[in-house]
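Your task:
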Amino acid sequence: MRFLLGLLALFIIPGSAVACWDGLILIARDPQLWVPLLAGFGGGILLYLLIIRRLPGISTFEHELTHALVALLFFRRIHKFTVTWKKGGQVQYSGNFGGEFGNLLIGMAPYYLPTFSLAAVLVRPFLPATWFPWFDGIIGFTFAYHLFSTAEETKQSWTKQSFTAAGDRQPTKSDIGKVGYIFAFLIIAGLGLFLLGIVVRMIGQGYSGLWPFLKQVARVSWTNYSDLAIAAYSYIAPILKHWFS
C-alpha cells in the first residue's frame, strides 16, 4: 500500500504543480482577490516569524488537530488528544477503516494538509459579500501559516531518531521517521501541491473550478510521463537493438 500511495503521489506532482500555478495566475488577474490575499499573506509571515514560532504550543495544537481530523475522516475514534507547550503532542485513536492506506494518510496529514486554508475556502462560496475582502485576507494569513509551519515541522521531523512521546511517555519516532524519507517526500510534494492547488482554484473559481482542476492534474501528469516514457524508449531502443543484433 505504501508503494501504491507513493506512486500515486509521484504521478500527480507535475499536474498539481501546473494546475496550482494556473490557479495563481487566475487570481493575479483580479485585484479584488490578490490584494487582500497578499496583504494577509504578508501579515501572516510577520506574525509567524515574530510571535507564532515563539509559541510552539500553537503549532503543536494545529499539528495534532490535523492528525485527528483525518483520523475522523476514516471513522477512527479519538481516545486521547494531548498537546504540550514545548514537548510536542500526541493523538491516540482506534479503528481500522481504511487499513494501512488510512494509517499512512493520518500519520502524514500535518505535512500535506493545509487545514485552516482548506476549511476557509470550502466555506468561502457560501459567505455574504459583506465578509469580503477581509475574509480573503484571513485566507492569505492561513496560507502563510501553513507554508512556514509545515517547513518548520518537516525540518524537525526529518529524522529517524527516537524520542519520548508526549502522551504515553513511550519511545517513538517522528511521523516522517516512521514512513521513511522517500515516501515522506512524495506525499508532501504530491498531496501538498494537489491540496494547495485546490485551495487556489477554489479562491478563483469556487466549486465550479474543482472538476477542471482534477482533469488538468490528470491530463498534464499523464502527458508528462507519457512524453518521458517515449523519450526514454527512443534513447534506449537503439542501444538494446545494437546489443541484441
